[in-house]
């Protein structure tokens, strides 16, 4: 079901396209500027470059900057480049500093330099400051447009200050409080400000247990803090607790979406840049590196089975159960992997300790192994009519499931310990490892009990 | 790296635990109530039931309700049940209605009824209203504590109204505007209110293009709207556009986290309730249904290979390449699946059309298939020294990869069309289907060209 606010929007879209066609600049501006910037941005998705060039001449850099802020950052670069450079530089200067930085991080060094030259020095300096910060840290997602008040102000003074700052600030719903030396000492919500008496002091009503993050903090940690504490904004400080910027909840929602896509893509061994709108050639280029690695790992499995060619020659029916044993090992391994990766991400695991986690997974593997082992033994005996083969297949499933469960939980824990993102331990990767382990178990067992099979 | 606001927190934790031990109620209250509710909640994770019972007697239901709101909803039920029922009912009545409803949705019908009886009629009625709404819809996540103003009020009147409502409302940063018949006609931000002249009318400064959702809307769609438009709150209306409630950004962050976990878990075929903190028996119980289904699908693969026993008896070395062919088909299928599921979730795919998507994936499969097919043909010829076998394995990989890529993208598209959540087309499931397809291709080809192999 589509949200029911779509219909009036589509009507407005049509009017705007007609106005463009007839070059009615006033009609275009009145209809276009009524729309929410996100809807304005979606119009750009649907028109040709000629129309876009026309729109650039109809809108001021300031108006255009709001549209640009509602694009995905990867999609913006081609738009910026197709614009007149001076116009583009104006737009970048008008945007929230954090968004401008995100966009410019996609450009080559000389492009960045030329846009910075075309801006006023003040705005260029603000952007330059933020360009230093590493991607995916607090510094790279914070904005420097925030409101601070001094702790010795009265509520009346604070409100006056707030009113003058409101048009430029990214949010005014949290106001951060500093002392004379610009140290962050408290926070006060606009809600508290408007229900307080005008001649009280800011320091009387502020909360002095303010939660903050350091400028190098990882964005995933910040997302967790903002979600857990239900904050709308979070201050970012340097090592001396001077406030450098704030992170707002809208940026954090983008981070959450990005991190979720990221983890999901890694489990499937696709690059997070492998999006549905790529051309087949680009998509193949993104996927092939993974596939070729997995292909060579698969050849290792093949040459392993090759070593048991003698066994196979004598009892060809052994081959029949290779996929089910390898498959089951792969499946349990992926399950254990996913639970562990999520547990690390949500923090559940650090609470209870890693060794305890491994013990739990071993026991889980034992239970699922015994259950699946018994079922398959019965099925092979009844369906295929081989008693001993059934027992060997059942025993192999039991052992494979235990080992695969342990491997699936151990690998991400190890990676986490080594400060590698555990989500990189992708599904297909763990599956291939478990293929190899389970086949050694299966053919090993079968070779030992060969006498029973012939 | 841990966020650097942890240290003062840990100090406070210690003081609180000592105060509990010494039964110093005043010290406990002064330290505990200074903490953010999220930190208060984490103390409950660390103490025994006796200490918790002690805390319940130290805190009023109203104070306790704020702590409870910062728990995961699944973790709250045991706490509520261990409390004195009257105290628990008070807490549920004091909470935001939406959170109370989320908690009570985990209870049995007779438990819900008994808590409702212990509340004041007014609060019980509010909760009863929301309990009707289906899970994961706007109705189930909205709160009924919001502020509306009439469009004919002056800014001064609106601010007075706002100040009186502020303590109870979930947010006051967006104020929704209604006409005489309580229809939603506009929205106004607190930012606009405080920078406007006091004798202007609300209708003069409100935005009348207000985005809203209907009460039955899916929570995932709502999360996308709030993220795209950067809203802090979104109004929920009935079919006559009367405002029923609002959804705030903090609830949406929880929804995003839940949906992300959900999709991730489904790709790995684990239930989303399979969390790292379950006992091994419960974890096994959650995973076994999937494993047993996959086990029987695996037996289908086995019996398929069984049909080729003749072929296998003559050329046992064919068995060696079963895992690599099946594995590669599984891997490409999972990649195509993940890209398609994400594409549906982000809306990229509805834009470009499903047929176009399938064509693209087919071409991607062709490119990856040719590449991997050529590589493996070369490897088998050189490494294993079998020319014709190499060609048969290479050809099988080529065909399997094309079919697997199409299957991986077709299945979620089909499910989406049938209104089934496409994420249910889990990784192991598509992998097993692709196992079967690839093995038919491999043994079919090998049987046809048998003469070349012997």
Which features characterize this protein?
homodimer, 454 residues, mainly alpha, MgtE N-terminal fold, CBS-domain, Tetracycline Repressor, domain 2, 3 domains, three-stranded mixed β-sheet, 6 strands
Description:
The structure is a homodimer. Chain A has about 450 residues and is mainly alpha-helical. Chain A has 3 domains: about 130 residues, MgtE N-terminal domain-like (MgtE N-terminal fold, Alpha Horseshoe); about 120 residues, CBS-domain; about 170 residues, SLC41 divalent cation transporters, integral membrane domain (Tetracycline Repressor, domain 2), CATH 1.10.357.20. In chain A, strands 1-2-3 form a 3-stranded mixed beta sheet. In chain A, strands 4-5-6 form a 3-stranded mixed beta sheet. In chain A, a hairpin with a 5-residue loop joins β2 and β3. The longest helix of chain A is centred in the last third of the chain and has 31 residues. In chain A, about 45% of the residues are buried. The mean pLDDT of chain A is about 85. Chains A, B: Belongs to the SLC41A transporter family. Chains A, B: Its main location: membrane. Chains A, B: It comes from Halalkalibacillus sediminis. Chains A, B: This is Magnesium transporter MgtE.
Question: What does the secondary structure layout of this molecule look like, with pairings?
Answer:
2 copies of one chain form a homodimer.
Chain A: H1 6-21, H2 25-34, H3 37-44, H4 49-58, H5 61-69, H6 73-82, H7 85-94, H8 97-104, H9 109-118, H10 121-131, H11 138-141, E1 148-150, H12 155-165, E2 174-178, E3 184-189, H13 190-195, H14 202-205, E4 213-214, H15 219-229, E5 233-237, E6 243-248, H16 249-267, H17 280-307, H18 309-314, H19 322-346, H20 348-352, H21 354-384, H22 387-417, H23 427-448, H24 450-453
Helix pairs in contact in A: 1-2, 3-5, 5-7, 6-8, 8-10, 15-16, 17-23, 19-22, 19-23, 21-22, 22-23
Main location (chains A, B): membrane
Function (chains A, B): Acts as a magnesium transporter.
Protein name (chains A, B): Magnesium transporter MgtE
